Amino acid sequence: MKHEVSTIEDYIKKLPDDRQEAMTHLLQLLREKLPEGFKETLSYGMPTFVVPFSLYPAGYHCNTKQELPFISVASQKNHLAIYHMGIYADKGLMEWFLQQWNQYSSHKIDMGKSCIRFKNMQKIPYELFGELFAKMNPEAWIALYEKEFRKK
Fold it and tell me: CA 54, 60, 66, 70 torsion: positive or negative?
């Protein structure tokens, strides 16, 4: 569900109450746990943490006028989604995350390639996401991105 907004605060204000609380909590975790160097912005109409041009001037290969995306959070029609490009690109990180899931959550994971979906905001394992958010710094993401996605 795309929200026409110009700030992250406006994005949050347009959400239903339960999603406002979940989104605020996730964004706070990202601000606290992501290693230094990522930049918070709106991209594709959702809150996104990117590698800024000052660290990676080449930008995103799909649109070089955009900074390199890393993590986004979005309120979609039927769920809240966390898009983490690191678990999509790093098989070891994905394996770690899936192994940890059952220690933090009693429900089955609803997940795509980089997207973890939550229909029930009460079931978001914030502690696990805090650990996940801390695992990759901008330099590691750039190196992985270059290896996995940039055309040689």
Answer: negative
